[in-house]
Amino acid sequence: MKYEPGNDFFDEMFTADGQVRPHYQGLQEYIDLLGVPEFQRRHGLLDLAFRNQGITFTVYGDSKGTERTFPFDPVPRVIPASEWAHVEAGLIQRVKALNLFLGDIYGEAQILNDGIIPSELVYTSSHFRREVHGVTPPGGIFTHIVGSDLIRDEKGEYLVLEDNLRSPSGVSYLLSNRDAMRRIYPKMFEGQGVRSVQHYATSLLSLMQSVSPRDNGTVVVLTPGMYNSAYFEHAYLAQQMGVELVEGRDLFVDSGRVWMRTTGGRRQVDVIYRRIDDDFIDPLAFRRDSSLGVAGLIEVYRQGRVAIANAVGTGVADDKAVYAYVPDMIKYYLNEEPLLNNVPTFLGSEPDHLEHILANAGNMVIKAVGEAGGYGMLIGPASTEEEVAEFLVKVKDNPRDFIGQPVVGLSRHPTFYEDSSAFEGAHIDLRPYILCGKDEVTIVPGGLTRVALRRGSLVVNSSQGGGSKDTWVLDHDGPVTPQGQNQMMHGDGQGQSQSQSQSGGGSQSQTQSQSQAQSQPQPQDVVADAEGLPGGHSYQQEQEKDVLESPDLNGSAGEEK
Question: Where do the Circularly permuted ATP-grasp type domain residues begin and end (predicted)?
């Protein structure tokens, strides 16, 4: 692999002097063996695979069209076992504190009474919901699904950039990325010890059922509809869990309960995995002009007869100004030091902080506290003086609505660019997905690695030209064992089953993966173009054939449903 890591940013795969990091050695050897032409040929198949499966996202207000294939880079990010253990412990600590914080502020608000967090900051948040004050969700869980964004600074330290607690999106791309990589680059995984992510849908469904007010309750996924930017994900997760995907018009309230309209009559709904913001979820409680929600839903919720995930009102902990106080929450509720640090944050609501923001705007990132997706943000070094001055007018008018952070040089990762047929460094972040149940916290090994595909850009959001990578968490720290390397290079089909067995797959997983390895095509069997495969089969037909004939994939899908 020809690649220049550079010295200005932390490179995930290579040290500054060009040496590959131990946990990446197996990956590098595979890419070198495959060769750039073959790697590029398979790269071209990924977009076709995503289009055939409808793996898309939506960009609002784009003159080129709204729906497009989610950009994907096939050079995976690799995280060694010990490094992941630290990240995992830090995330568990963080979500525990956030859940306690939400329970507190919608109850006795002790943390506010003790002056740890300014009361005004919480009560002026646009996401604080007085309508649910005093309501304890089933199981006492507010944050069922969390997606915290992590970055690595120039020294390689993991930092939390922000928390997403309302409706964190992107996990469908994580799962689809892994599935596509296993199809297009099957030998890449052999002998590497990559931990599985396929249990996510099963874990999500178990979590939803665990907070049901009734035994064997009915779970649904509530979507705003097909024009929402994340509609693919809503449909995907409903299908994977084997539950109904519904819109607001499919539900109604009667006799103090929520019901779903079906062809066989009405059916009581017990758990709603909502992908609709609080404002639109119930026109009787929030926005009266909303046609997306269910009239009367909040009253049923207050009575404890339906669970909503994530709980109504969690957005107050999503506020980028409240984010600055999460380390204080950890110390206050858990009596522990934070394992993962925040990015230094200046609050527009604090006069001295505001002064610093205004004086150093050209060297900072300034964000609107309630925006997401890369919107409402100024990157000072990448902006003109006129752009900075114009943005600061907004900050001065509503200082509470903005925070400022120093520009952090996000870590870089080798990324394949088709226009140059070369591997170049691109900035990345990481969004792990955390499932918080009554008794345990489950984190998918890895998460969604987002990559800034525009050369030199620090913005990884898909709406701003970003894409994603598969994220590997290994069951070791590397390098790959000599036995594993030999298996990977010679393709004898045993390495994958061994790595899955080592990561807790059990005898069934080992048997399944051995069967899959025997049926995987060799490099020369992979389609050379987007038109068809040897033997006259279309690429889509061959994909479907692989899914149907693979015991491993069928077994996983069956368990997930």
Answer: 76-452
Bridge partner residues of 405 (DSSP): 365
- Tell me if 297 sits within 8 A of 344, measured CB to CB: no
Residue 267 backbone dihedrals phi, psi, to 5 degrees: -135, 135
Q: Residue 255 contacts by C-beta under 8 Å, 6 or more apart in sequence?
A: none
Q: Answer positive or negative: Cα dihedral of 316, 320, 322, 326.
A: positive
Residue in 339, 346, 426, 369 with CA at minimum distance from that of residue 163: 369
Residue 529 CB burial class (10 angstroms; 0-12, 13-18, ≥19): exposed
Residues paired with residue 220 on neighbouring β-strands, in sequence order: 244, 272
Q: How far apart are CA 118 and CA 100, in angstroms?
A: 17
Contact between residue 213 and residue 257 where contact means Cβ atoms under 8 Å apart: no
Cβ atoms of 53 and 226 within 8 Å: the answer is no
Dihedral pair phi/psi, residue 557, rounded to 5°: -65, -40
List, run by run, the mean pLDDT of 10-residue segments along the chain (561 residues): 89 94 96 93 84 63 56 94 97 97 97 96 94 92 96 96 92 92 92 95 96 95 91 94 97 97 96 96 95 96 96 94 97 98 96 96 92 78 92 95 94 93 94 92 94 86 78 92 52 40 39 40 36 35 38 34 31
